[in-house]
Amino acid sequence: MNVAHRQRVGLCALVLAVCCGTAPAAQAAGIGSPALSAIPADYVSYAVDELPRHFTTPPLNNLFDNTPASNPISNAGAELGRVLFYDARLSHNNSTACASCHTQETGFSDPEELSTGFEGGQTGRHSMSLTNARWYASGRFFWDERAATLEEQVLAPIQDAVEMGSDLADLVNELAATDFYPVLFERAFGDTDVTRERMSQALAQFVRSMASYQAPYDRAVEAGTAGTPDFAAVEGIDNPTRAAQGHALFQRTCAGCHRTDAQVANNTFNIGLDAETVDEGAGDGEFKVPSLRNIAVRGRYMHDGRFQSLEEVIEHYSSGIQANPDLDPGLPAGGFRFNAGEKAALLVFLQTLTDTEFLMSQLFSNPLVALAGDYDGSGVVDDKDYTAWRAAYGLTADGVSGPLAADGNGDGVVDAADYGVWRDNFGASWEDLTTALSQAVPEPAAVTLLGLALAWPTRRRR
Length: 462
Prior knowledge:
By secondary structure, the chain is mostly helical. Helix content is 37%, strand content 2%. Helix 1 (3-20) packs across helix 18, helix 4 (75-86) packs antiparallel against helix 9 and helix 4 packs across helix 10. InterPro entries: Cyt_c-like_dom (IPR009056), Cyt_c-like_dom_sf (IPR036909), Cytochrome_c_Peroxidase/MauG (IPR051395), Di-haem_cyt_c_peroxidsae (IPR004852), Dockerin_dom_sf (IPR036439), EF_Hand_1_Ca_BS (IPR018247). GO terms for molecular function: cytochrome-c peroxidase activity; electron transfer activity; heme binding; metal ion binding.
């Protein structure tokens, strides 16, 4: 079998693997190459033009949207941000991506109490959900609001000594040296220059495009009104009467902080987690309040991830609010004293905020695919990958920090078999992924719904 034929067979196998959800695991390549359509996905239609009426009317559209005029969402910009978001190259040892701590299936939160960084250390706080992050009036980010803008926030974890540990100047050079990032930056910004400012803008565009507005609750609002959603008109809500009761109770007791039909906040609050402040947060034990969209699938709750279920969160507000000296005046010390029926109703209502379309959308899924033989992560299998294989020959997975990049067959050791992987794929490129997908995949949306060859590593938990 000649090299060209081996490449065609390999690409066909990759396309079938992508479509069937059986593509090679991340550990076999460490980092991946983007498998994208030749035309950028339409983020503007999804996140701007097609928003429902209750997202495009005051106060949500004019008082809460923190999109700056200097960085509106664009298709190519958000798609570049998507690639960056999932790319483990952004960490010092190619082990950790933004998506390692913000997973799509949990509404871009972390199901763990704390997140694990690139060398196994743990973050000081729980990873906040990014769902509907665009709608927060002040535009400040992190639980303690230390970042003035989303553009500032997205670069901080990349440089953090625990989270990703990278030097931005080195990272810019690393990304510019790949075959594909200059192309993606040119699509987004007009030329091939890779800069930290453009990285920031693209990542912020992608995060702001994470608009969740297709939950059962949204369909109930469309069937009724914002003030009186018609839960009975929505298929799939098991107990619409209880959902309506939960909504009414939520409006009386919770909507002072969780405002509008996006259930977003406009300030920081002390919610009485502790009688004496343990973490000052933004000051006086106050913390930023994320949107409640997709709250039922998050797995962990609060800035420190202390609660493991939505039932525990409801119980806190029912009976666990501590008489902290700085407790928000809208919250009663000791809690609201909900009865069993009220707790059950609140739970049913909060479950109507789960947006399955968003949680499975191709727009927000991992676009990276393991390109076999691409040991230096450039997006092209060439002589440099042979050099990388030769330099790594004999290494084992236990002997390196991060993924074993030249381990082409994923068996945990760099040996002659990995040379064969490089040889059989010599000349392959990330652009072949686009060509192969466009020719062989009749339903592009199915690629993501079935799984796109996750090319960034899952973190090892302690």
